[in-house]
Amino acid sequence: MCGISGILNLRDKASISPDKLRVISFALNHRGPDEAGAYLDDYIGLAQSRLSIIDLSGGSQPIHNEDKSLWIIFNGEIFNYPELREDLIKCGHKFYTLTDTEVILHLYEEKNEKCLDELNGQFAFAIWDSKNRELFLARDRVGILPLFFKLENEKFYFASELKAIFAVANESPDFDPIGFEQIFTFWTNLPGDTPFKDYKEVPPAHFLKINFEGKFTLKPYWQLQFKKENEIKDLPIREITDRASELLTDAVRIRLRADVPVGSYLSGGLDSSGLTAIVKKKFNNELRTFGISFEEESFDESSFQKIMVNHLRTNHSEVIAKNSDIGKYFSDIIYFGERPVFRTAPAPLYLLSKKVREEKFKVVLTGEGADEIFGGYNIFKEAKIRKFWSNNPESKLRSKLLKKLYPYIFKDKRLFNTLEAFFKLGIDEPDNPFFSHIVRWMNNSKLRNFFSDDFREQIKDYNAIDEFLLTLPDDFDSWETLAKAQYLEITTFMSGYLLSSQGDRMAMGNSVELRVPYLDHRLIEFMSTVPAKYKIFGLNEKYILKKVFNDLLPKEILYRAKNPYRAPIRNSFFADKNFHLTDILSEEKLIQAGVFNPSKVKLLLQKAEKSDSLSELDNMALAGIISTQLLFEHFISVKKSISAKNHNFKVFFDQRTKN
Q1: What is the pLDDT averaged over residues 16-23?
Q2: Which residues, by range, are in coiled-coil regions (predicted)?
């Protein structure tokens, strides 16, 4: 993967200096440390920082077509590029590299934006049409890779990460209260928004066109779609399992295409274990695997990793996540992630990618997406139970089914009534489009009690949930309860948090590319047609996926209880003596940032100091407030000047008019 960036003049030609391109490119150097390249003409400047994975010696970017009228910079991988290349050669296209990048360019030349329908991959790219003076940006279907933009003073800026635009834009960034209202509801922004005013993200499955005259178009090219409940075909379970297995195996096969070794994350859970087993047994007998263990026993699952390592005999490396390490690297994960977070879970994943890079690997497979696509999360089972419960809301027996999901919580009889009331929220509105998620979102919204009065005043009557409602597909109400829940989870949490704050950003912070076979669009589209009763059979989650892996995995892995991936929060911040918590959360700095009420934060900090453990909500608040303050320090409080004097472009295409 790589970092891409650019600056387009609007309406008036103006000089874009090569030095500015160096700065915007250097800000993304962690995404592509192998080499950099640039293109410059009278209208636009393009820059790319490359992590070389395919055609190591000949794939320098930007890349052009035969007559040099089209230029591309690309971040990501197109996994079906060999097949597409063969078809394009038959159509008369001539190639001068062996890259997937050049395949995209010729496919665009052939089909314009319709080229996106044929791409199987994870991508964000920009194509400049120098004849028509038009810029084309596109992002993959589920948002595996990021792409941001900003319009400012007759210029259009874009980049893989916001920090690159911050480095060259004239105006300093500022927090967007509306963006924070979204984050403190969904844990992330709604598609297209960011935490910063006037900075936008190309939503997943969208393309953007903007020309020199300023004509702007942003359109979807793909839609996550589920069948209406009365249109779902009830295929035999064996047929469903065979087809899912076939698609997943092929998704893994094409994601092993690279000119460098490909490793695999191995947590000991079903998803990563199954992927690793497919690779090891069908494609690569010398597989390298990487996993995390935790200092705190309650978070550690290394025993399951050992079962899988012994079962598959992989060459395995492990990184131990100590509480002090999580605190030590928390500032780094906010710098790379560019959003507030309510968990410390990204930090161990940052440590893991660091280990991968130290072992000289650039590419790993990972199991993200399996829970969303195959029906693995407890929130999906909650929705199923609560829907059943809604038919008889006064039943004391139906609510007890929740004990099967959270036996460790419901052990405390004193808490039972409180938890029952928590999950009963919205039970009288089973047809509410947000029935599956409203409990969590309303609970998250309590975090907004920490907002300052001024910040609340700027938010006014805006409601993030109401805005999300306006974006739902027209036939959403006719979907099964599980399908609705999957859509909500994929559109918000997966794309905006899981694939970003815990995914691409943590890996690329150490120049590592993640590949996610479960998010092959063919598999997504097929599983969207499978009846809910087979995804969650009774309360048995990922029923189809377990059948796919039945002959590949040990029973201890196949039938183990699902545990969500988590990391310590309160203890991580207090374990690292060099983590200056009182300074980060000082009254002066809280007032300067303007987001939170200092008195309320002080009370939270006092509670955290006095107790070895905090409630779930207080832990979330602590992480959210700390990460917001760090975000302010990194990008707003001080305008950081980036020196890129020694950042040289390996290739530089200067197409400016010579005077």
Answers
A1: 92
A2: none
